[in-house]
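Appendix B. One record, verbatim.
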Amino acid sequence: MGDDAELTAAVLAAQGGDEAAFRKVYRAVHPRLLGYVRTLVGDADAEDVASEAWLQIARDLGRFSGDADRFRGWAARIARNRALDHIRMRGRRPVIGGDENELTGRAADSDTACEALEALATDRALSLIARLPQDQAEAVVLRVVVGLDARTAAETLGKRPGAVRTAAHRGLKRLAELLGADAESTGALDALPPQRQPRVRAVTSASVTRSRSRTQKDV
């Protein structure tokens, strides 16, 4: 059974109250979801915001319907809303730069985008993504890091699939340029360290599971 099929089955089991299945869902989705949140709020607040997102995911899981890809999109949308709430509460702008503009037209394919893809899971690459315009940064993270298809990413962002594909292509092209211009990254793409394991301060899969169990008992 493939990864998507396993995640779909785990989500269904978690909806039925299987705590082990919920932990499996958490382990499968959390690292990439945290990477997305980091591009929005920065390192200092990312774990707290992701924790808030997981508490809502656990609380509302019974209302979800769909397969693995739709679950990733649903979780990303919750995380995005929590991140934007956090930003508004702090009175700050998103970490990612630029204005969110609707892109039209077809971006040219870039061979160097493959190099960018290889480094996207690293802390260094995520910091470079944060330098992209907001629409490109979110499109790249949702499409490549979180692993959403264009339609699901578009639903998460409230845009058309074509606009998300264009933003992702342009973002990857710009990311490849940034990687090529970075002396540290250029000679060591294959030697980049793996993404560090997240330290979840406010919540873990176990604590979310306990919270979900209490919610079910109260119903």
